[in-house]
Amino acid sequence: VHVFDHPLIQHKLSILRNKETCVKEFREITNEIAMLMCYEATRDLPLEDIEVETPVAMAHCRQIAGKKLAIVPILRAGLGMVDGIVTLIPGAKVGHVGIYRDPETLEPVKYYYKMPSDIAERDAIVVDPMLATGGSAVAAADFLKESGAKSIKLMCIIAAPEGIERMQKHHPDISIYIAGVDEKLNEHGYIVPGLGDAGDRVFGTK
Questions:
Q1: Residue-wise DSSP of 152-181
Q2: pLDDT at 107
């Protein structure tokens, strides 16, 4: 588990948590945090040496060595993180997994799934602002592995200890990147203190 304590991320996270933050600002800050987190989460991408001709001379440079990325938002809240990431990685493909939590059991139910045809050859980054019970993240990872994905990371803005534990139990091979770890889940399965319903706050549907 990688918890980012970068001052910029922590400052922006305080804005997300504030119940007075408007939809426009919440949406913008969500994307900004996603971009900053992606910068750190891709630190291990392999590089290769190349030569580039500048207007003055040949330069020895380094570029990403053939790694293909796929961004996989968990619908719908995960969509709020996509633009920030593809701004950094415009060549990344975007898959979608639609999962909702059954209000009675709090367990995930899949209603949509669409991935790039070459997902088995790509490094997948699953994104969801909240890692609460962990059910949706575990299910998304299950679906990706069934599709042949071999390299998966999970990137969430805030998480509850219960969600982290569940994810590590079911998918110990998946690295988890988080901006903040909160205290607990309440009886309704919401993260405390959290930031409310991320999907409602991103899309203004509260």
A1: EEEEEEEE-HHHHHHHHHH-TTSEEEEEEE
A2: 75
